[in-house]
């Protein structure tokens, strides 16, 4: 309990110092982002949407009275409240992990299907020639096959 209180005190002190003193460091230089697949973008957007639904209040408020805020956090909270908050956070984390695991399993299954489909594809057939043209802008034929099969599954 006292460790949490110490962390909260430290966090609030740092927060107050950020608003009282101007920052002495220049803003960090942004690094170029590495290219990612559409599936990764979709996964990240889903996580961001879930996070924003869970963590953002309906109407954000800013409390600029830091002394009041500090007093509020320094007051001891009852043990049941802290335990309940911890259980809720653990439950949300467990759900997010399960969803991420399911998505990974689906991605692995789709990859296996795409590999099998590519092995069976006759490159001299109409479908094979069409696929060659389709896959031209993808980083690999496997990535193109995965997107193609995903689109076919969504149509069904």
UniProtKB/TrEMBL annotation:
Ranges where the record places region Disordered: 1-40
Polar residues composition-biased segments: 1-19
Pro residues bias (residue ranges): 24-35
Name used for this protein in its record: Uncharacterized protein
């Amino acid at each position: 309990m006292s460790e949490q209180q110490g962390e909260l005190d430290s966090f609030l002190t740092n927060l107050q110092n950020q608003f009282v003193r101007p920052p002495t460091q220049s803003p960090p230089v942004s690094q170029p982002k590495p290219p990612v697949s559409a599936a990764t973008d979709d996964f990240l957007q889903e996580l961001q949407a879930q996070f924003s639904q869970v963590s953002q209040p309906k109407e954000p408020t800013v409390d600029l009275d830091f002394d009041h805020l500090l007093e509020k956090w320094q007051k001891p909270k009852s043990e049941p409240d802290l335990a309940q908050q911890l259980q809720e956070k653990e439950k949300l984390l467990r759900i997010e992990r399960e969803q991420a695991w399911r998505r990974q399993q689906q991605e692995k299954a789709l990859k296996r299907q795409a590999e099998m489909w590519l092995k069976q594809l006759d490159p001299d057939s109409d479908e094979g020639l069409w696929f060659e043209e389709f896959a031209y802008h993808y980083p690999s034929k496997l990535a193109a096959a995965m997107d193609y099969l995903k689109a076919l599954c969504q149509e069904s």
